TrEMBL record:
Keywords: Acyltransferase, Cytoplasm, Iron, Metal-binding, Transferase, tRNA processing. This is tRNA N6-adenosine threonylcarbamoyltransferase. GO terms for molecular function: iron ion binding; tRNA N(6)-L-threonylcarbamoyladenine synthase activity. One of its GO terms (biological process) is tRNA threonylcarbamoyladenosine modification. It is found in: Cytoplasm.
Length: 333
């Protein structure tokens, strides 16, 4: 079974070929145009998707050594995301399915982030828990099977990735700041500065308070020393990163203890964070749980996660018809 996966929910145009559960190619075109604006500009994103989509799919096919006619089904991101961006990928996928007379598979982007853990040889077994931490979402997902997932905890306000990016912005770092905080944190002392800990019930998260706590802290310190940020950048980044990681892993641990599930995964762009990866592995080792993290290229937005989801949908006969339409927000299943 050969699946073409297409991802266009935000600012990455990506295409991937999956054959029998193995990823043969995963080509990603990043949109540089947004950097100067400090965030993704929706209108520019859809325009860039329009320019990228044909060459991106061509390259993915070429790199996999697969011709369009040997593709068995087309999987695409149907929701959630920027509507203009989603429309480009979904209309293209639908047209392709119609012209090739091949089945169409619509994929939920957040379920696909979770499914990235099924790429490769070292896979979790069901049921497992997945902490999905991305630019727009923070969720603890109970994964019962490839097509049955429940969100058992999520953020009430900002996502973990937003907490990284907004903190980075306060430090004067360019967008997206998450990877830069990671880089500076590596040389810093994470115990030097303390930030407020949110008090949120159950398995839910909150990240808007920590952003405010960082803002006030920076205002206070730069009043005393205008070069405070410059002189302490590594320690500030390390302290912010440690706080975000601690908030995330406390809830994941609680979820594991509550459910008794001993197979844990990470997913989403923030799972590229080296501090989170390390602390997650430690948490698993200390509790005798099994921990899984997707390879770097499958953490941030990519089409391989759409193609692998498409593959599992294909073998369980879950197809969409051509009337399916893109949606900015959508039900979880
Ligand atoms: P969603 O999937 O919720 O729609 P998204 O697709 O935009 O959002 P991803 O591409 O999965 O999100 O992740 C992007 C986020 O990951 C950004 O907030 C970015 O700063 C963050 N990120 C990427 N690498 C790192 C890192 N090394 N450390 C911290 N954050 C990181
Ligand atoms: Mg992105
Ligand atoms: Fe994403």
């Amino acid at each position: 079974v050969t699946i073409l996966g297409i991802e266009s929910s935000c600012d990455e145009t990506s295409a991937s070929i999956c054959r029998n559960g193995e990823i043969l190619s995963n080509f990603i075109a990043n949109q540089k145009v947004h950097e100067q604006y400090g965030g993704v500009v929706p209108e520019l994103a859809s325009r860039a998707h329009l320019q990228n989509i044909v060459p991106v799919i061509d390259i993915a096919l070429q790199q996999a050594g697969v011709s369009l006619s040997s593709v068995d089904a087309i999987a695409f991101t149907q929701s959630p995301g920027l509507i203009g961006s989603l429309l480009v990928g979904s209309q293209f996928a639908k047209s392709l399915a119609l012209s090739l007379n091949k089945p169409l598979i619509s994929v939920h982007h957040m379920q696909a982030h979770v499914m990235a853990n099924l790429i490769g040889v070292n896979k979790p077994s069901f049921p497992f828990l997945c902490l999905t931490v991305s630019g727009g979402h923070t969720q603890i997902v109970k994964v019962i099977s490839t097509s049955e997932m429940q969100v058992i905890g999520e953020t009430r306000d900002d996502a973990a990735g937003e907490a990284f990016d907004k903190s980075a912005k306060l430090l004067g770092l360019p967008y997206p700041g998450g990877p830069l905080i990671d880089k500076y944190a590596a040389e810093g002392n994470s115990k030097r500065f303390q930030f407020a800990e949110p008090q949120i019930e159950a398995l839910d998260f909150s990240f808007s308070g920590i952003k405010t706590s960082i803002l006030y802290f920076l205002q206070k310190e730069t009043k005393k020393d205008p070069d405070f940020i410059k002189n302490n950048l590594s320690d500030i980044c390390a302290s912010i990163q440690a706080k975000i990681i601690s908030i995330l892993l406390k809830k994941l641990k609680k979820a594991a203890l509550q459910t008794g599930i001993r197979e844990l995964c990470l997913a989403g762009g923030v799972s590229a964070n080296s501090g989170l990866r390390k602390s997650f592995q430690e948490l698993c080792t200390n509790n005798n749980w099994k921990g899984y993290i997707p390879a770097f290229e499958y953490c941030t937005d990519n089409a391989a996660m759409i193609a692998i989801t498409g593959y599992y949908r294909y073998i369980s006969n879950e197809f969409s018809d051509l009337s399916v339409s893109a949606s900015a927000r959508a039900a979880w299943s």
